[in-house]
Amino acid sequence: VQVVNSPAEMQRLADAARSRGERIALVPTMGYLHEGHLALMREGRRRADLLVASIFVNPTQFGPAEDLARYPRDFERDCAMLRTVPVDVVFAPEAAAIYPHGFQTWVEVIELTKGLCGRSRPIHFRGVTTVVAKLFNLVKPQLALFGEKDFQQLRAIERMVRDLNFDLEIVPVPIVRESDGLAMSSRNAYLTPAERAQALSLNRALQATRERFDSNAGAGPSELARVAAGILAAMPDVSVEYVEVVDAETLLPATSRDAPLLVAIAARVGKTRLIDNTVLRRDR
Ligand code: PAF
C-alpha cells in the first residue's frame, strides 16, 4: 500500500487515476481499524479500480471535553490490515495540512444534525461534513463508503452530497458485530471486560425492539423506545444518553407506522460513549 501524506500529492494521484479511466473508491476513517472498517474496504475493492483509505483523526469533530488526545492510534497495525484487503493508497495527512492557518470555511447540514447525537455533540457533525467534503475534493472518488453504525453521520453526508452536488455515489454498508453482538467500534478498546459485558445490552435492547415490532403490528415509536430503555435501565454501569425511535429518512419523530423506523441508542458504559442502532421495516 502506498502512503500519501500530502494533500497536493493525493490530488495529483487522483487526477492521474481518473485520466487512466479508473474508478476511485474512498473509505474515510480515523484509523485504529477493525472488521467494520474492513467490510467497507472490501465493498470498495469490489466496486472500484483504485481503493483509497484515509486515516485522519479529525480534530474539528471532537468537543473540548471529548477524547481527541487519547483516541486510539496504531498506524503500522492499520497498514498491515489494509494490505490484507488490499487497499491501494492510504491517505494520512497531518492536521496542519487539512486545517492550515487561517482556515475558516465550514460545511454544515442543519436539520439532520440537530437531534440524536447532535444534542450532546453540538459541533461534531459540522466537523465531520467539513472534513468529508475536503476529502472528497482531495481524493476525487466516484464512490465513498460509510458504515450504518454512524447512521446520523451517513444521513448528513448523503444530504450534503445532494445539497452541494458532489458528483459521487455514497454507498452505505451494514453494521458489523462481534460474535456476541457488540457493534464494532474503535472505542470498544476503552472498555474493561466487565464494561464490555454490560455493553452487550445495547444490542440486546435493539433486538428486543425488533421482536416487539415483529410480534405486534400496532407497536408505535414510544412503545418501542420504552422496550429498549427498560433493558438498558437494568444495567448498573450503563448510563443512557438517549433511546429514540425516529423516521429513518428524516431522523424526525416518525409520523407513519409504515415508514422505516430507526431505533438509535447512545449510552455511556463506564466512561466510554457507545452508539448503536437498527432499522425496522414493516415489509421485512
Ligand atoms: O466515521 C468516522 O470515522 C469519521 O467521522 C469520518 C467519517 C472518517 C470523518 O472524520
What does the model show?
The protein has 284 residues and is α/β, with parallel strands linked by helices. The chain has 9 helices and 9 strands. The strands form 2 sheets. A 6-stranded parallel beta sheet has the order 1-4-3-2-5-6, sandwiched between helices. A 3-stranded antiparallel beta sheet has the order 7-8-9, covered by helices on one side. Helix 6 crosses helix 7 and helix 8 (193-215) runs antiparallel to helix 9. Residues 28-30, 58, 61, 128, 131-132, 150, 153 line the site of pantoate (PAF). Pantoate binds at residues 28-30, 58, 61, 128, 131-132, 150, 153.
Strand content: 15-25%
Q: In oligomeric terms, what are we looking at?
A: single chain
End-to-end distance: 41 Å
Largest sheet data: 6 strands, parallel
State the total count of DSSP E strands.
9
In DSSP terms, counting alpha (H) and pi (I) runs of 4 or more, how many helices? 9
Identify the bound ligands. Answer: pantoate
Radius of gyration: 19 Å
Strand order of the largest sheet: 1-4-3-2-5-6
Structural class category: alpha/beta
Q: Identify low-pLDDT runs.
A: none
Shape: globular
Mean pLDDT over the full residue set: 97
Helix content bin = 25-40%
Order of helices and strands: EHEHEHEHHHEHEHHEEE
